[in-house]
Amino acid sequence: MAKKSPSTIRIGKRYRSTRLDGPYDALVIGSGIGGLTTAACLSKMGKKVAVLEQHYTAGGFTHSYERAGYEWDVGIHYIGDVGSKHTLSRRIFDFITARQLKWAPMGKHFDRIFLGDQHYDLVAGKKPYRRALVNAFPDQEAAIDQYLEYMRKTKDAVRSSTMERLLPGWLAALKRRWRQSRQPWFVNAPTRQVLESLTSNQELIAVMTGQWGDCGLPPAQSSFQIHTMIALHYMYGAYYPVGGGSRIAETVRPIIQAAGGEVFTYASVEQIVLQGGRAVGVKMADGHEIRAPLVISNAGVFNTFNKLLPSGTDEQAKLPTVQPSMASACLYIGLKHTAEDLGLPKTNFWIYPSADYEGDIERFMADPSQEIPLVYISFPSAKDPAFEEKYPGRSTIEIVAPGPMEWFEKWAGTQWGKRGEDYDALKEQISQRLLQALYQKLPQLEGKVDYYELSTALSTDYFCRYDQGEIYGLDHTPQRFDQTWLKPKTSIKGLYLTGQDILSCGVVGAMTAGVLTAVKVLGIRKGYGLLKQIMSF
């Protein structure tokens, strides 16, 4: 294996209290896409915002890192709904980046679902998607059409519930009761229950839900809402940011700077400062206090309420109603050949032992020597047309699989990069299993790997401050979507939330939440003005 070299992709200004240029109109804790979006939207409306990121580079799960002459994205594998300039997702991206972020299409076959020895391609476009399913399951045409209709109705319900988060409490409650009285039963039912009401064909259900790794819950546990949002998000294809995920933070930062704000790195917030029951600023790790009339947390509800606020707040009592999402292990692979030379596809691979997702998970969690229940393989260098120019003669692969914190918690508290030989041995064992999964699908790669390294739940905790290693914020269960307190405005005056815990996981889910938070902060008149700007951009 190649020798490690220092990471070099660093976006943001290194924090020092002497480098602050206040007063600021708002402080944003965390530079994930939700925090960056809120900051950019407020900046566009004339607010001076300081974004405070504890990591060495901005971006959260959208950041990239470089090692040993290779570059990988830690969370950007593909984005949907940006192919047309008229979609909401594309309009928001264009608005917060001044159209400096470009997109490369992944082609018609963007996801390949492997179920044992069989595989099925998900095809871009509603009609081609339907046609591919009907061709594969010709006796299930009626069920497939009903499934598509269920998703259409669920999308309408989700759009309505999203807007409730902006309404005053009493009005939101009235609207919610009205919506729920008319809402179809399947909208927030478990995904598997909904699909088994349409068909008994378990292979078809497995293909329909083959992207369940995008929310981290198998269909028996996830809400049909999140399944619908993911499936429709990619219905018209998938795209990859030209230049990699780091281009997101890189193109958003100038928008924040243009209004006098800044994105600070190495800026660890230790506490949200309350005065008279109101958030008035933050206390940094160096003891310095930064004051501002608005504090917006993109750190997730568990971090915000359990770690950044004093104990005994009303918000903490709500946390038992939600749970952290899955943790993962990710293998980052570098090869000294181009993607073209190696025949690397743009298509993502979702590899499952069988169509029995829940059974495979149960067997694996009871005995990790069993087949890995989900292996996701992404080929970022094949997706990014700018990769060859930056790293000529090289290519990269990323493999993600379940990796619960329980496997690694005995090393909690040890230093990153120096956790000991037994930890390294466990990582190597997992790495070899994931490499074998890769070679089974692409045997021409065996012997071509130049470098690899594995990140674990401890890495997620170290770099992103999620102490359970969760990669999707909160579990997307039906109960989670019943929680009315998951909205931008908290019960503490001056304190707001943003990011994936507000709406749903994923880059676009967190980004949309970022817009909602900005609208709520600005109020009705200015918030409407912001939305009008986005929709006309």
Walk me through what this model shows.
The protein is an alpha/beta fold. The protein is 37% helix and 18% strand. The strands form 5 sheets. A 7-stranded mixed beta sheet has the order 9-8-17-18-19-16-20, with helices on both faces. α1 (33-44) packs parallel to α18 (507-522), α4 (141-164) packs antiparallel against α5 (169-182) and α18 (507-522) packs across α19 (524-536).
List the helices and strands and how they pair.
Layout lengths: L12 E2 L11 E4 L3 H12 L4 E4 L11 E4 L2 E4 L5 E2 L7 H10 L5 E3 L3 E7 L2 E6 L2 H11 L4 H24 L4 H14 L8 H6 L5 H7 L15 H10 L4 E4 L4 H13 L3 E4 L3 E7 L2 E7 L4 E3 L3 E3 L3 H8 L19 E8 L3 H4 L5 E5 L4 H10 L8 E4 L1 H4 L3 H4 L4 E8 L18 H21 L7 E7 L1 H8 L13 H4 L13 E3 L9 H16 L1 H13 L1
Parallel strand pairs: 1-11, 2-3, 2-15, 3-11, 8-17, 15-21
Antiparallel strand pairs: 4-5, 6-10, 7-10, 8-9, 12-13, 13-14, 16-19, 16-20, 17-18, 18-19
Helix pairs in contact: 1-9, 1-18, 2-19, 4-5, 4-8, 18-19
Overall geometric form = globular
Largest sheet: 7 strands, mixed
| CATH architecture designation of the largest domain | 3-Layer(bba) Sandwich
Distance between the termini: 48 Å
Count the E strands: 21
CATH superfamily of the largest domain: FAD/NAD(P)-binding domain
Which residues sit in consecutive blocks of at least 5 with pLDDT less than 50? 1-7
Work out the helicity level.
Answer: 25-40%
Strand arrangement within the widest β-sheet reads: 9-8-17-18-19-16-20
Rg over CA atoms, rounded to whole Å, is 22 Å
Beta-strand share of residues: 15-25%
Count up the domains: 3
Q: What name is given to the CATH topology of the largest domain?
A: FAD/NAD(P)-binding domain
The average pLDDT is: 95
**Computed structural class:** alpha/beta
Total of DSSP H or I helical runs spanning 4+ residues? 19
CATH first level of the largest domain: which class? Answer: Alpha Beta
